[in-house]
Design a protein that fits this description.
- The protein contains 3 helices and 3 strands, in the order βαβαβα.
- By secondary structure, it is α+β, with helices and mostly antiparallel strands.
- 43% of the residues lie in helices and 20% in strands.
Amino acid sequence: MSREHENPVIAAEVRNEVEATLIIAALGDAGIPATSSGQLTAAFRAEAPGMIRVLVRARDAERAKAVVEEWRGERADSEDPAAE
């Protein structure tokens, strides 16, 4: 059996470590193990800033993307005064 379902895939890309940490926590709450990469380049102040990638196993990718979309929607609603 192939181990491709274990390979890491990108579930989200964000500009800062705080947002990556919050997404990783939301994924963890949903039972999806996640990690991140790119923290060192994302902190540079340059013309082309880096992005932090939140990574999950390929087999969890679809579910992880749904969790990220839901998290982003809840976050947008909480930041929008008209949503209250």
